[in-house]
Amino acid sequence: MSATPLSKRFGTAVRRRRIEAGLSQERLAELARLHPTYVSMVERGVRNPTLDAAARIAKALKVTLPKLIEDAEPPDKGGAGKE
Length: 83
Description:
Helix 1 packs across helix 5 and helix 2 packs across helix 4 (51-60). The protein has helices spanning 6-20, 25-32, 36-44, 51-60, 65-72. The relative contact order is 0.20. By secondary structure, it is mainly alpha-helical. The chain has one domain: Orthogonal Bundle (434 Repressor (Amino-terminal Domain)).
């Protein structure tokens, strides 16, 4: 298990995708219909987004929510649990 909380890893994944897309936090917030402060807090791992907000962020980033969550998962070490 990773020592970094999922909320922090999710925020890092959102930030990485946002930067790759060339979006500011303000533009991402506008596209996702969220407040820029909320997006900032999600990216820093201070706020846990609701499923609805996470889905809106993913859509604004043009990625599926499952893919965004997958981006936040720690790398599998040793293949445990894989079939």
